[in-house]
Amino acid sequence: MEAGAISAGGGRSILERPPLARLPDRALRWGLTALAVSILVLIGFFFVRLYLESRPAFARFGLLGFSFANDWDVQGGVFGALPLLVGTLITSATALVIGVPVAVSTALYITELCPARARGTLTAMVELLAAVPSVVYGLWGFFFLVPRLRPAEQWFADHFSFLPFVGGHVAGPNYFIAGLILAIMIIPIVSAISREVIATVPADHKEAALALGATRWEMIRTAILPYSRAGISGAAMLGLGRAIGETIAVTIVIGNAPTIGKQLFDQGYTLAAVIANEFGEAASDPLHRAALIAAGLLLFVLTLFVNLVARYFVVRGERGKRAAPGTPVAAG
Amino acid sequence: MSFQPAKTGMTDPPRTTHPTAAPTPAVSSGLGDRRAQTRARSVTLRNLHAYYGDQHAVNGVWLEFPANEVTAIIGPSGCGKSTMVRCINRMHEEVPGARAVGTVLLDDLDIYGDGTDVVAVRRAVGMVFQKPNPFPTMSVFDNVAAGLRLTGTRGSELRDRVEHSLKAAGLWDEVHGRLAQPGIGLSGGQQQRLCIARTLAVEPEVILMDEPCSALDPVATLKIEELVAELSRRYTIVVVTHNMQQAARVADSTAFMLNGELVEHGPTGRMFTNPGDPRTEQYVTGKFG
Amino acid sequence: MTPLAGIGARRRRSDRVARTMLAVATGLALVPLVLILFYLVKQGLGAWSPSFFTTDPSGRFLGDPGGIRSAILGTIEIVALASAIAIPAGIGVALYLVEYGRDGRFATAVRYFVDVMTGVPSIAFGLFIYITLVLATGFGGFAGWKGSLALALLMLPIVTRSAEVALTLVPESLREAALALGAPRWRVVARVVLPTALPGLVTGVLLAVARAAGETAPLLFTATIVKETTANLAAPMNSLPAQIFSDVGQAQDRLVARAWGAALTLVVMILVLTTLARLVSRRSRIA
Lengths: 332, 289, 287
Known about the structure:
The complex is a heterotrimer of chains A (about 325), B (about 290) and C (about 290).
Chain A lengths: L22 H39 L1 H6 L3 E2 L4 E2 L2 H32 L2 H16 L2 H26 L15 H25 L3 H9 L4 H30 L2 H6 L17 H12 L3 H38 L9
Antiparallel strand pairs in A: 1-2
Helix pairs in contact in A: 1-11, 3-6, 3-8, 4-6, 5-6, 6-8, 7-8, 8-11, 10-11
Chain B lengths: L42 E10 L2 E11 L4 E5 L6 H8 L9 E9 L2 E2 L7 H7 E4 L11 H10 L5 H14 L3 H4 L12 H14 L4 E5 L7 H14 L4 E5 L3 H7 L2 E6 L2 E7 H6 L4 H7 L5
Helix pairs in contact in B: 3-4, 3-6, 4-6, 6-7
Chain C lengths: L8 H39 L2 H5 L14 H33 L3 H15 L2 H13 L9 H25 L3 H9 L4 H29 L3 H4 L19 H9 L4 H34 L1
Helix pairs in contact in C: 1-11, 3-6, 3-8, 3-10, 4-6, 5-6, 6-8, 7-8, 8-11, 10-11
């Protein structure tokens, strides 16, 4: 190789640059890399700190004893998080049952059925639901929804008491109200992701179905829904993750009773609500504080798990599409 | 196509044998005297290999691009002609997983040498792309000035160089009244000449053109072709094209590539009338590709 | 019956029923929006008055509760500092992912954990800051800047993900054009990539700011409630969401009225931000 030819005469050839000129490039590269590394470090640190600070609670009650004992008694100094866990699950399950069908319907309606002119407006309106802060949902839920829905809830409880977990006295703030508020809150995200997923259905599939003489609904059922099932499941799981972690609105409308309610219209508590509500008083009691942080850790692990499952579904949905871009879907 | 084990850095791989493309330095094209006002630098490829991951895109090319001449590279899609040209200004390595092995010389300077800086290489070897790609956030003026500002050229000197470059690209008369308007507001052919002006402004030695007319209409194409002939007085020019008429019109010499290998290289006239390799003949007569 | 006479009555009926149900469900989703906005305006406007915006909360349970000046200013200060941290950091991480990391293993890991962060409940960020910054300096260590940090953690993944999308949309041909001119990578980023991606970046940033402005939970045990206005980010600070949350818990009509007025104020602020975001993204689509 003619390495000697490069710097003939000791001067700089036109293919060289002063070393200093390369400095900003290196600085940018390493600076940005360091930033990216710090994200990973931060998340690791986050988890470790949460775990360390919650240890007194786990040490006293045991991991299972803390998580699954049905006794949250602040005065007695006993902390078993089962009532909170159950409350979190009931409210977020309610949110899913009500919110997901509505959200997916809006997504289908907006992408496939509504007039093109109305599409932008409808999308913007659904997204406006996401612009309302949690605390405002709580405020509205407490002063508007709770008093107005109570007669209807009582009527339902009286006439459908044959259903499980229905019947008896309806409390003002309760699981159902919290679940309903959560349903409204998760509609924008579930709808937005469903819309994205539906938009990736190739036009050929839809046209193939229509060309075979399918009606609009049959086209949705045979071309769109099978294709986007995984993605919509992922959207629902992301919504579930949101519902589990949602704090302030739930705190305002769930009644904050640390017991497991016997029915859907009873007062309850959730993991997130207990932290928001009791933290002020827990500052002076290390065990109580540790218990609340442990509840936070439980919440963190729960949402992490749900989000990982959601991610799996969304990624699988996308991968399936990439692997078989032209696979025809049987119509009819 | 054979897989070659990974080689890093600049090694001299064993010579592959080529039926026709031995290291034949191009001879004079016979298109008349060199009208060089400024002598540019030549480019020499010695046993150049290029890879995308495991894929061997350019396979042992030996070729010389004489100074102040226009060399056309022809060949069917996917024959490696664009990749080969992108190795000359080291744009090839911007593709993730891509690498090049072999020697590329600018006169006697090693483009892949240890002391060589990739940024400096690209200032000496400019490039015009297939699709006109003016910077959408910049005005006509700023597009041409973009490369100059890097070296700290400012004020009246900057304005002079921009005007000079736009004139050299044959665009000045059409745009001098709207230098402040966005570059993407121009027509396709004007955009491509804007991109050429942008390349000229940094005063490179060599200009690589990767199918510069494939996105343009015939009138715009003609303008670019006239421009290429004009520019060869001052620059060494390499034009990749799939259009054989274009090669015949603009190039002093022509190289034909197939499946990553250089099949034949010679004066343009001979390549189209009396090629030495049957594959070249098949290609230029339209039997395949 | 001719071939063009149409489909069977049963199929037509099921089509019509299904379409109607989808339309009804869409309407159903918008009912709460209309109800909330209507009720919010009705209750909130009643609470608005010039003194509502110019006085601090008085702290009196009976009598005049005062206005929300300190809450508005506190929200602006806390969110501004959070933005000053999260926006450069988030765009920086996105730049790393798009310009340097690409599809490498490390970049994939970073992308994955940024995804994880978007799923972390906001209250968990508050807890984390409480543990690391408030506890460490003893109780009473609430401060505006700690609230900002909690909000910055919340904003970071939102900014990163939207910025990554915006940067990916910058055509590779522009990067190549700049590199081929002999521009160093940092110049390419500063002069070509960032300006081209600007509308997308701004949209994502505005949405992240709007999201942070409405968050209550992370502020509850990092920045807390105070009554008077302060410009000192090292001191505890009031904020709109925290003020609303506190007022809701009081069974006192005038405090509840103040909560509605504050809620309307907060929603108006957030709507301004989201509308701006929408306008910016629409303009970029035209260009």
